[in-house]
Amino acid sequence: MDSLAKTNRSRIFDVLSEGLLFVRGGESTCVYDTDADEVFQQEATFIFVTDFHEPDCFAVLDCYDKKYHLFVPHLPAEYAVWLGEIESLESIQKRTGCDYIHYTEELPTFWKEMPESKRLLITNKFSKGSVGEVPSSFTMTEDADKTIHELRMFKTPEEEGRILESCRILGECFRETIKFATPGRYEYQVDARLRYEGMMRGSRFVSFAAIPATGKSAATLHYIHCKKQLKDGDMFLLDAGVMYKGYASDVTRSFPVNGKFTEKQKELYQVVLDSQMACIEMLKPGVEWRDVHAKSLEMLTKGLLKVGILKSEFSLEEHLKNHTATWFQGHGIGHSMGLAVHDIGAFPEGRGRFSEPGYSSLRMNRILEPGIVVTIEPGCYFVDVVLNDVKKTPEKVKYVNFDKVAEYSAEIGGIRIEDDIIITKDGYKMLTNIPKTVEELEALKSE
Ligand SMILES: [Mn+2]
């Protein structure tokens, strides 16, 4: 085991000088009301603290003495028959580097024997229900979330390494899957191909249910139904990610299933790509996340004015003031990413969600700093329910040329382009490297 969790624990000890930090691991589960085991995936914060990927465990970090206690289940003998060899406590201790190892059944005694001077118990929301019976002399807080969210936001070199590997694997998955997504296949088969390619490269899990959307399906932002057949002429939107040792990646590519962009597809694709490039270029420490989002709306407005979907009889400023671009890009510019694909810590103390129009869908409210990993994912979609509302609203309808909307939406459901990026001391570093320009995608499709 590498030093990832050890580094994280010492970061926690640097912040918390007192208290017992209790973290609950993920639980083994069965499929609904059956005895069929589900595939176990470890809980994110537990990975952060322990990097131990077995179910039904707890960790206690003794911040007074900077010691790490690991609690593992006392497995019955028959486990060995049905599920495999039971690892000895010595072996687990060696493997995890924990200072002390216990069975989970010993937790009540552990609390009871804790000296009076060490009776501050800190948990997070996820863990608090599992602390068991704690003597009344303990003080309990749920402050752990605050501390852990903030630490998880800033990636250590070890964490960056894992995310980079996750992104590298995903790049290979995308290359194979984009080639595979041809007319006649089904959306769920595209999903299957991506999972296959990931597993073959060591990614046992995806980082979220993939969005493999052909034609009109791509107008649904989190489309996961996966039932439709790919037709010649369709644009395809593939938003997917894999996990590598607990760390996520998350990429979107949009491409024609027959391998050749039409003129209209190419034009609108370029609008989204220009927006993405402009947003990426502004990434550096000190930049407000909301300003990156504002840039994407500005770029989309300019692009839609150029292709004629937004009416140029109104000025750029007037379009921006009326948020006309948000009728075509209803989501935020991206999100933080790490152990979770939408990583926690995006709203630090004193900074909540935005309420003003055009900004309420943002998944983060922070100033960028080195070590933060973000996705940049502008898009442009023709969403019937949104556009029908625009059509019915006199103060909105005047800004949009619906003949143009009809022309473009006949060939495009939606386009999104997404990459993963880490903020560095003086700018940013791309973590993903997957064909993206019209030329690159057409060349890949013709391989
Ligand atoms: Mn994303």
Automatic annotation (TrEMBL):
InterPro entries in UniProt: Aminopep_P_N, Creatin/AminoP/Spt16_N, Creatinase/aminopeptidase-like, Pept_M24, X-Pro_dipept-like
Cofactor: Mn(2+)
Segments forming domain Aminopeptidase P N-terminal: 1-130
Superkingdom per UniProt: Eukaryota
Keywords carried by this UniProt record: Hydrolase, Manganese, Metal-binding
Entry protein name: Xaa-Pro dipeptidase
Organism: Aduncisulcus paluster
